[in-house]
Amino acid sequence: SLHFRWSTGDSLVTLRDVGRQDFEVVLTVSGSRPPGLPPPSMRVSAGGRTLLEADPPPQITSYSFHVPADLVEHGTLALRLAVNPFSPPGDERELGIQALRLQVSPSAATGTEGFVLPPAGLLAGVLGACALLGLGSALMGWGVGGVAVGASLPGLLAFGLLTLDRLWLTSRQWYGVWPQVVAAGLAFTLLVGGPGGWLLRRGGAGWSSGQRRALLTIMLAAFVVRLAGQLHPEIFIVDLGFHVHRLEAVQSGQLFFTTFASESGGRYNAYPPTAYLLMLPLQWLLNDRGLVIRLFMVGVSTLGVLPVFYLGKRALGSGRAGLLSSALYLSMPISVLPFSWGIATNLFGDFMSLVVLAILVGLYKALQPRRLGLWLLLPALFTAFLGHPAVVQLVGTATVLTLALMFVSRGTVPKKNTAWALGAVVVAAGVAYVVYYSHFSDTLTGNLADVGRSIGAQAGGGLHVKISGAVDDRSLGLIPEYAETRSQWLRGGLRGLAREAQAYYHSWPLAGALLGYVFVQSRRRKFAARGPRGRMLAAGGGWSLAVALFALVGLVFNLYVRYMLFALPVVALGAGALLRAVERRNRWGRLLALLVVLLFVVEALVLWGYRITYSLK
Fold this sequence. Notes:
Number of strands: 12
Number of helices: 23
Distance between the termini: 22 Å
Strand content: 5-15%
């Protein structure tokens, strides 16, 4: 098929950051117009100088012309295409000519054919990033070899992009933010390292020097890659504008507002301001709402590796399991996708639910009025309940199910601690309702009544249920589907869940997590939640049951929450436990575990690059 675009009477084609040198250009057009209209007359210019004048015939024709380097201002080639315009009968649009192709290549006459000289500022940006990464590697305790590898990475990346995809690097001088991104990553990692180590020790899972170095390196790498991608000029972040407006509202003093939620069947929901309140200090410092939201998303999601590592070492009994789980937590597809979606408050709410999980598993014996654990659990639950509307339902259900599994487990479990923890859930939920949700009682009541009417309509034969999950994204294989019959609902629902499992986890970590928890249980004679390992099994079961429940709720009531994102920590920990078991077998097991993690890291980088360049545009 023939692909073309109509120009207007005066069109501008801009190729940013292509480099200041001579170029050869080939423009392919068709002068075809409706009968009775004057034929096109075309003029191409750059920098005010005419480069081509022609009267294109109706046939497809290619025109070649030369662009001297002095017309490529600041390394950007801007070509102006002027054509005598026309408007089709019954159409008010101004049209010029059918443009099929524009090919730009370095001129052979300059002796640089095949390579475009990079901008002068590129060297400074890359060297700055190299120096900062080398410094960071030294501060984290790496030797000469580690420092050399860290310092060389920006240079290797720049060389690869200059060779394979130069505009990805130079577009709008993206390389210029590299030093700032690395500096922000170092500040974040070093600030987290001190209190993070203290918290791990207080929780009974202190890290060794090697584990500290490895975990901080993982955090730094994830932070830098994520923030650099968030600042790439080609990225489109779906919900960024939404969060900018909410932050602006909170900054002006408006704390109570509702938002439209397609996941809840197109209803309006109360939207807690907690995440935006925590962004305010950073906003006062930077005075850039878009940048603040980007930094917040990257920071809060990367910070999740601390409780994941804690749970791996405390509950699974292995710092290596904690490191493997942390690497998977940061590199599975579902951990990459939120940054192009821009779901800042989802990430915050899920981080707080992960904190709740860590307290339940690691500090269960301290869940008493005279111990610190209970007084940590209360504010963590309260903040999670005010993190995001969907997280309220997920974390509340998962916590109650986890406590129920702990209560019914065998062994000498301190049942009173379970009762105190359940009381904390009730108190946190009650305070959250009084402080915030009571202001939206009419909205909540109306939504419940509307859901009831929808259920009644379905019972009466009017089935129309979405069965493809919360996200519509064909690039991920998530295609919108609706069921009109019961048989469609069953088959399509299972198909939709399978697509989500593949898109978000590549499927095997879900099964791998199950095997990992089975392996953890197999090392015990019977299930009992009296130790951190048993409590991790109970928490994994509680979180998984909550995810399954809300997947079913979505299929039945067309009310979707991001249950796949909520499952990420327990999936990462289960898969990490399995890889640790494989690693312990022999050297081939160690190699296999390493290769699996490397595969996910590489796939995460590829997916992140794809989402930056192509997704949702």
